Amino acid sequence: MKEWSRAERYRMLRDKSEVEDLHKQIAASPYRQTFHIQPVTGLLNDPNGFITHNGEWHLFYQWFPFGPVHGLKYWYHVMSWDLVTWKNMGVCIRPDMYYDNRGAYSGSAFPTDGKIYLYYTGNHRDEDWTRIPYTCLVKLNDDGTVEKYTEPLFGPNPDYTEHQRDPKVIFDEKLHRYYILIGAQRKDKTGCILVYSSYHHNRGWHFQGELKVPGFDNFGSMWECPSIEHIGGKDVLIFCPQHIHIEGRGNQENHNGYIIGNMNWGSLTFTPEGSFHVLDFGFDSYAAECAANLKDPNKAVLVAWMGKPDSLYPVTDEEGWSGCLTLPRELSIRGRRLIQTPLPQLRNLRKKEVDPALMTLPEACEMEDMNDGGSHHIKILCKENGTGGIDILYDDSTRAITIDRSGLTNRFNVSRGEAITRPLENGLKMLRIFIDKSSVEIFVNDGDAVFSTRAFPTPEEHHFILNDRSQIKIWTLRPSVNDDFVI
Hints:
5-stranded mixed β-sheet, 3 helices, 33 strands, 47% strand, globular
């Protein structure tokens, strides 16, 4: 792998011609996705600014143009009319002001005054490379033009470390007040959330205090990508605690999860009604972003980065690109847990049903596997002789499902674990598996659990083995993501 200098990581993209050859190179990759959002060049990480406006869906992602590393970040814009078919719109936010001179970092969106407002962290560094995080604002007009505010909304709070980022804007209709949640780190190196408020979306912001979450005062070293969603009469605190080991998560230290409870904006207290739960039990899921204005009291729509901080994906890294987003999922509450289910409109991607007797998998497909009771074992992306691949094993005696990707030829991030086991309170009844050219997403029992993982199968690894294939259906899926070179 190439070693990147600071100068290479933090150069500005002046013209699309600078990355045109890179796009042509990666467009030929056998691992370019068919129905997942992916970077036009370089690196993609966190989804940002997920919103619906004038009948269309807008989504942005963190983007470094020049290669598969983190550096000077932009916001890249994609749009959809159905949350399934996406087209590239080009760069929306460029790091071209003093307050974001080292990157336009993650944030959120809010529609008002007939426009979309984008709130993000301006990553500023001075000559000594000291970081100063600013909370910044951009107005996106309907004609695609962008108006950047000349000054940030506010700067960092001096009582916390330099790690203050990922503004999530929330409007409380009862109080007629705007709030911004900021993921932060206390000076004792523990994670928390800071709260700012204003009666105006674009001015007058004041620090309200630290969000109190009883029982979670010492839970990880930093909380990234915070959000509070109201679903099914409950408040859901979604965030990413870093550098903490959670039972059942192996050596993974950075997590994507939530707490169900009740939010009191007056006292700035989120009262949990249970423990912290992982959103996605797979190996590659982080920085979840919920659509800001769905206007449905019983559900939300979530998308996440199908990757992890401090992880490498050498197969595509060596090709000059890295990263993709998960499929958008519907969130609802069932009992004491959040349930994630594939969007109903994903069924519109089904192109042709495949005969399971062939025991082969198309490069982009959906599998539906019904289990009528007892233990169950399916192996996907294996060789023709049944070796290797990803094992999906349900043990009825322990009522637990295990996903093991160690059999793949292209192994990566091995030290963080290659097998994950998840108890299933209701046993195993059904699997829906979405396989793209370099990813697998496994939905269990219509949302009891979901496992997302990157996977880079070799040409020989396109078969599957099932202990009873009579209950399986397979469909090829049509392309739904536009991979045009738009900057």
